[in-house]
Design goal:
By secondary structure, the protein is of the alpha/beta class. Helices cover 48% and strands 12% of the residues. Helix 7 crosses helix 10.
């Protein structure tokens, strides 16, 4: 099936390049491409996208404000940030606003397409540098932990050993295919494990799972 998407990017050449890249054969249908997100609510109401690609720095409304509007009005529409910015403030403002993923504009075309498909399958694609900054942020935060007699944090969410392993790979920024390869299992098995993980963590998507895993120190951050 093809997923309908909208592109919000003020750089004309890049916007046109994205339209061409995500055209026929990519598994996506570009329903609209705009230089700003000032009318994002109306655009989505008229064009029914499954996914929005959102720049941050645009004329008028910022992409962060755009994400908040999408999330409040259309909770089922996926939003991925596509930007040159990698400072901590913008990253976490975007994630807190409800972004489902965060990719830098130096992402290769093939990786971009793969990441968008991964997002639509429930993943939380992030450029490696962004994932690293997320880890660093939470490493600096003091989190209260419950410990067992062995001194290890209790597995209060009831994850199995395999589920914790898969979650750890997800937190490290691995794609579904990479997780399947690391664990020597099929893609379908990875998806089933992630579905169970989301249920146990009481989250709806991969981004929420990553943030919760780091915040509660469910997995190791090295």
């Amino acid at each position: 099936m093809e997923y309908r998407l909208l592109i919000y990017e003020d750089n004309t050449r890049l916007r046109q390049s994205l339209e061409q890249l995500l055209g026929e054969g990519s598994g996506f249908l570009v329903a609209g491409a705009f230089p700003d997100c000032n009318n994002v609510v109306e655009d989505i109401e008229q064009l029914y996208p499954d996914l929005v690609i959102m720049d941050i720095d645009m004329p008028g409304m910022t992409g962060i404000e755009g994400v908040r509007l999408v999330r409040s009005h259309f909770p089922d529409v996926k939003v991925i940030m596509y930007t040159v910015f990698y400072d901590d403030t913008r990253i976490f403002d975007c994630l807190c606003a409800g972004a489902d993923g965060y990719l830098l504009k130096n992402t290769s075309p093939l990786k971009l397409i793969q990441s968008l498909h991964e997002l639509m399958e429930g993943g939380a694609p992030m450029s490696p540098l962004i994932a690293q900054k997320v880890f660093q942020f939470f490493r600096t935060k003091e989190q209260p932990l419950k410990h067992s007699a062995s001194g290890q944090a209790d597995n209060e969410f009831g994850l199995t050993v395999r589920e914790k392993e898969i979650l750890e790979y997800l937190v490290q920024g691995n794609s579904y295919k990479m997780i399947a390869s690391h664990c020597n299992i099929t893609l379908d098995t990875v998806r089933k494990h992630l579905k169970n993980i989301y249920h146990k963590l009481h989250v709806q998507c991969g981004t929420e799972a990553v943030v919760k895993a780091i915040k509660h120190k469910i997995v190791r951050i090295e």
